[in-house]
Write a structure and sequence with these properties.
alpha/beta, TIM Barrel, Chondroitinase Ac, Chain A, domain 3, 6-stranded antiparallel β-sheet, 15 helices, globular, binds (2R,3S,4R,5S)-2-(hydroxymethyl)piperidine-3,4,5-triol
Length: 525
């Protein structure tokens, strides 16, 4: 009876809205040099995955997918919500799909991040409602060189952002009014924006803006950030004479890269209007995602200053990392205090190793491979395996992020070892290669959790310790245990010694499936 009452109370609270002053509403909080996502008053690590673009447009289609998400050990699903389905006719709002998605997630104890596919998705405007598509006088399009129009809304037309922002604000109001259980954690505003097919919008309004003086907000930013701007922007600005006023051309020069800076500012301003309208109804964290291989003004790292200056209501600039150097992307996107959240990446074995680097070394708020509803054999996939481990150590990660007591790494033949300092010890972390083990990849994270005590998770690496504080100069292994966390409580398994810790010389993680181990060390002379 007591359980039934508690359940009914939970259902009742969940269907009420978030209350004024509700401290449990998802928000970001600084911890040391990291930023963490707080949900219901506690830090939360997003172990998520993004659905195919069209999956969440049908609740019956979603029915079998929820269990698939659970088999992958997710705690969060990234699901598109489109303007075309929320406002099929102007002023007629339909939240039945949104309600069904929230209910489906809640029934499966999952959280959601909604992707607001509206003015732009991958640069085009295919998700705007048909009443917007048809009314090209009222909702002006961008133009390419030679005056060619494309099916892409122009950033320079206030009517466009006003219509988008109105629908988005209504959506956020609805979420506030119905999501007292905080199922929805964050919002992605638009998707991979940026002009395609030319370096900038060449509509009449865009040409006029380009020939006019840079906006006063940007002048103020340049003035204030003279010495701290990222080098990529600094380069163009300095080359043009480091001016804080003047036309775009006189401040940033001309050419494709200068056009990109102009477009980045204009996308940022537009998206900021939309985000601001949404936040005025319900201020949960909001982010934008970037196509890393694209130019055209999207929130890529080389124009991040334009986005930081132009879109103060956006909390995170997020990379969709499908290729290139994963670590470099993490480095670039954590400049200027930008928190790391990776809304799209692969779900391959290699990508799931990179997740340990992202959360351990770059304090990521979370990771989310794309197209997760078509992963075959979810329960035995590399993604499920990595998330099973990360889920257990999430409280350890969240307690240490931003405090110099946590590190993450990926090792391979080209980069076989790293040296990191944690809590008074220098740790040398190398590929696990001894007489019977020849790991050619290793990955994981290590956290200092108490005096001389470390928790590690991953596979294919070994750790040696060197004291860095006054006292005895050598460090030995006191004990290594493998184990699991159940409801945050450490349950030890085997004591690892002999071959398993290289006769007491190193803390080892064999290259089998990733696992969790606890190591204590002592000092001697
Ligand atoms: C990146 C986009 O953001 C996704 O929505 C999807 O279109 C993928 N590309 C396709 O690979």
């Amino acid at each position: 009876m007591r359980h039934l009452l508690a359940y009914l109370l939970l259902c009742a609270c969940a269907s009420f809205g978030a209350q004024a002053g509700d401290a449990g509403v998802p928000h970001l909080r600084k911890q040391g040099h990291a930023t963490e996502l707080m949900v219901d008053g506690k830090p939360f690590l997003i172990l998520g995955g993004e659905l195919h673009n069209s999956s969440s447009s049908s609740l019956p289609y979603m029915e079998p997918i929820w269990d698939h998400m659970l088999a992958l050990n997710f705690n969060t699903v990234l699901a598109p919500v489109s303007w075309e389905l929320v406002e099929p006719q102007e002023g007629h709002l339909d939240f039945s799909l949104v309600d069904g998605l929230i209910q489906g997630a809640r029934q499966h104890h999952l959280h959601l991040v909604f992707l607001w596919l509206a003015s732009w998705k991958n640069g085009t405007s295919s998700y705007v409602p048909v009443w917007v598509k048809k009314d090209f006088h009222r909702f002006p399009r961008a133009r390419l060189a030679h005056g060619e129009t494309i099916e892409v809304l122009s950033t320079l037309a206030p009517a466009n952002w006003q219509a988008d922002a109105k629908a988005f604000a209504a959506l956020m109001r609805h979420i506030r009014e119905t999501d007292g259980a905080h199922t929805v954690l964050m919002m992605q505003v638009e998707n991979e924006v940026g002009v395609r097919g030319d370096t900038r919008d060449r509509s009449e309004a865009a040409n006029a803006a380009f020939d006019a003086g840079i906006p006063k907000e940007l002048s103020a930013f340049l003035e204030k950030n003279k010495d701290t701007m990222i080098p990529e922007i600094q380069k163009h600005w300095q080359a043009a004479g480091a001016k804080t006023k003047g036309t775009w051309k006189s401040v940033f020069g001309s050419g494709a890269e200068a056009d990109e800076i102009f477009m980045a500012w204009n996308y940022a301003r537009y998206v900021d209007h939309v985000a601001a309208a949404g936040k005025s109804e319900y201020a949960i964290p909001m982010y934008v995602n970037a196509c890393l291989g694209c130019a055209g003004g999207g929130p890529v790292a080389r124009v991040m200053d334009m986005w930081l200056a132009g879109a103060p209501h956006i909390d995170i600039l997020s990379p969709d990392i499908y290729g290139g150097d994963f670590q470099k992307s993490c480095e670039h996107f954590t400049r200027r205090g930008n928190p790391l959240f990776i809304p799209e990446m692969h779900s391959s074995e290699e990508a799931t190793r990179d997740m340990f680097l992202a959360v351990g070394q770059y304090n990521a708020i979370g990771t989310s491979p794309f197209a997760v509803d078509s992963i075959k054999d979810p329960a035995t996939s590399p993604l499920a395996r990595s998330y099973a481990i990360l889920q257990q150590v999430a409280p350890v990660i969240l307690a240490q992020q931003g405090e110099s007591r946590l590190t993450g790494f990926v090792l391979n033949k080209e980069h076989p070892s790293v040296t990191r300092e944690l809590d008074g010890y220098e740790l040398t972390i190398s590929l696990d290669q001894i007489f019977h083990s020849h790991a050619d990849t290793g990955y994981g994270l290590v956290a200092a959790v108490g005096a001389d005590e470390f928790i590690g998770a991953g596979s294919g690496f070994r750790v040696t310790f060197k004291p860095k504080t006054p006292g005895p100069t050598l460090a030995g292994i006191a004990a290594v245990d493998e184990g699991t966390y159940r409801d945050g409580k450490w349950i030890p398994g085997r004591r690892l010694n002999g071959d398993e810790d290289d006769q007491g010389q190193t803390w080892r993680f064999s290259s089998d499936a990733p696992k969790i181990e606890r190591c204590t060390v002592y000092r001697y002379q």
